[in-house]
């Protein structure tokens, strides 16, 4: 049996102030640790805020070379001290000159690296970001393999299916859902859990995007699509649940869609 306590966190970021948002992420890391979590997942573009004016100020966006430097130092120190892994999303300048919308994994040892780049960009995002390359990103935290996704990725069943095929026991989504999109969010994420027989973890952004409220709703679903934990739109809230490999194995003996999928 492998178990992992995960916290899906949400907070209102300071738009364009990466240092302030790194400090908030460090604070939430300590809060998650105090509640027993070993993994904290934060929302889409948390280090800048999910806001066009932040994305357009390209000179202020983090560079991948910054991940080991001073910029993330408070978060890396908090993760190291608390022995908590953190997945945090940010726009990221890459060494090839592109800008991606990425997930950075800060390990419980304080090491940080870019772990995933968003593959499915919505039409507005294509003005600012390059899509991530093909393939599946699965990282292991405390022996639990996690498939990584950012928001719109999760609307494509094959994305979650590929993560499960690669061994993921949970599908982890860093997201920003604007007002009016919550029904689609909840249906899609519960479906991804049932499709693949995995847990689904979603950290939802708060704040505003172009004057439209962003809805939060951070949640965790079990491998049959049942909601295990959820928060509404509270600033600084954490939705905690246990990811359990035995539960995944038991569900997959009854719900066999993952095994029955045609693989050409």
TrEMBL record:
Recorded GO MF terms: hydrolase activity
InterPro entries, per database record: C-N_Hydrolase (IPR003010), C-N_Hydrolase_sf (IPR036526)
Domain of life assignment: Bacteria
Keywords: Hydrolase
CN hydrolase domain boundaries: 4-245
Record PROSITE patterns: CN_HYDROLASE (PS50263)
Family classification: Belongs to the carbon-nitrogen hydrolase superfamily. NIT1/NIT2 family.
Protein name: Carbon-nitrogen hydrolase family protein
Organism, scientific name: Nocardioides bruguierae
């Amino acid at each position: 049996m492998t178990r992992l306590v995960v916290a899906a966190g949400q907070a209102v970021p300071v738009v364009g102030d990466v240092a302030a948002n790194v400090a908030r992420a460090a604070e939430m890391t300590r809060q998650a640790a105090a509640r027993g979590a070993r993994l904290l997942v934060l929302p889409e573009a948390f280090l800048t805020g999910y806001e066009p004016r932040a994305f357009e100020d390209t000179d202020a966006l983090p560079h991948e070379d910054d991940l080991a430097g001073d910029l993330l130092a408070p978060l890396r120190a908090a993760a190291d001290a608390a022995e908590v892994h953190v997945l945090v999303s940010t726009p990221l300048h890459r060494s090839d000159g592109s800008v991606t919308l990425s997930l950075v994994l800060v390990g419980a040892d304080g090491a940080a690296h870019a772990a995933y780049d968003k593959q499915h960009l919505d039409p507005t995002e294509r003005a600012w970001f390059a899509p991530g390359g093909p393939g599946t990103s699965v990282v292991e935290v405390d022996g639990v393999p996690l498939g990584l996704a950012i928001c719109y990725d999760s609307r494509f069943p094959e994305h979650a299916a590929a993560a499960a095929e690669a061994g993921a026991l949970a599908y982890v989504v860093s997201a920003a859902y604007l007002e009016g999109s919550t029904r689609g969010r909840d249906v899609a994420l519960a479906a991804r859990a049932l499709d693949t027989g995995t847990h689904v973890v979603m950290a939802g952004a708060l704040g505003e995007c172009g004057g439209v409220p962003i809805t939060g709703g951070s949640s965790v679903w079990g491998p049959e699509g049942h909601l295990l934990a959820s928060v509404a739109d509270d600033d600084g809230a954490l939705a905690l649940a246990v990811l359990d490999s035995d539960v995944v194995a038991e569900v997959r003996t009854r719900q066999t869609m993952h095994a029955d999928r045609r693989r050409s």
